[in-house]
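Dear colleague,

Thank you for sharing your sequence with our group. We've completed the structure prediction you requested, and as agreed, I am returning the results in plain text so they can be pasted directly into your records. Please verify that the sequence below matches your submission; if there's any discrepancy, let me know and we will rerun it promptly.
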Amino acid sequence: MRRNMKTSFSLLVVATFCFVSCFDPPVQDPVVSIEFYFLADSTLTNMDSLEENLYSLELADEPWLIEDDIAFYEWSTHCIYLNKSKRELLPEFYSNMNMVNEIKPFVVTVDSLPVYLACFDDVNHAMLNPFPSISLIEFTCYPNDILSYFYFPMHDPDRRDNIILKNALIENGQYRGGLEIRLDLDYGMHITRSNDSTTIEYKMIFNNLNDDALYVLDPVKTGWDLFLLLNEPPYFTNLANNRCAHSYQDLDENSIPDTLEWGDTRFYTRIPARRSISRTIMVGGYIDFQPDTYYFYQYYRSFPKNMSLENRTKSNGRIWIGWTYLPFYQVTYTGEEVGTLTEFNPASLFEKFIPK
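Please find the predicted structure tokens below.
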């Protein structure tokens, strides 16, 4: 009898819970709205003027990108990993790719609040454009499920680094720290001269800022030819006379593997979540590299084009793909074996600097 009473009481509790739940379901955290809008007036292209009136701009009736379209967002490189293809989001661009070479502004909003102005732009103009820009490179050199910005690290501040958008992504569970790449300033730059040719050696640090593992293209595993074909050796510009020293090292273009091999982990090293690795980079063939002070930049990229989601995804991590510039650096070479490396702010050179 006591057992039956306990059973009846338990059933009553369960029934009451189910009844209450039907009318008062568990409260879920609301999703923060993230939307990308074109302007209602497509003839407006003066970015400076538009930014001055950011909060009063009339936007298109419907956004072309919303938070539901975003699988996750890698903050370090501002790569947007999508739940659908770019062709679905931007069909008009794929029907007329010339549109990508024209300035077409758009506004990023968070819960209907405009947070920054950006645009589609010609790649040559985008290099000097301080506004976040999407160029033909982002359409043709990235897989269909990744949308990115073209960015050259000459603009301070980086307008993509918007704290309101960042917090919205974190709240939605869509934020990823990404991959941060820097040079080891303590190691400096080791310089070896032989007759008229100079070899430089420095260390590149790869920081995985994600909570999941990343496979990164490893210069040791690829070999120097392949790595330097993908990641052009740095150009050194003399601060005194603006002369440029660059590498004449011969590289074997046959070292680039077939696209079917790009997902092979033999080219990559796995970096666990929140960990880092360093790799030594060695480049020869520099001519007329005399003792002086130089500034330089370098980008890092892997095999972005046509790398499918299936090829990128591994059982214990994913292959990082993309194209990102490292910060600008300055090297002071006095003729000793090791040159001093420091970060360099290129803003003062903006008017006369011509990117290579």
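Summary note from our side: Residues 1-23 have pLDDT under 50 and may be disordered.

Kind regards,
the structure core
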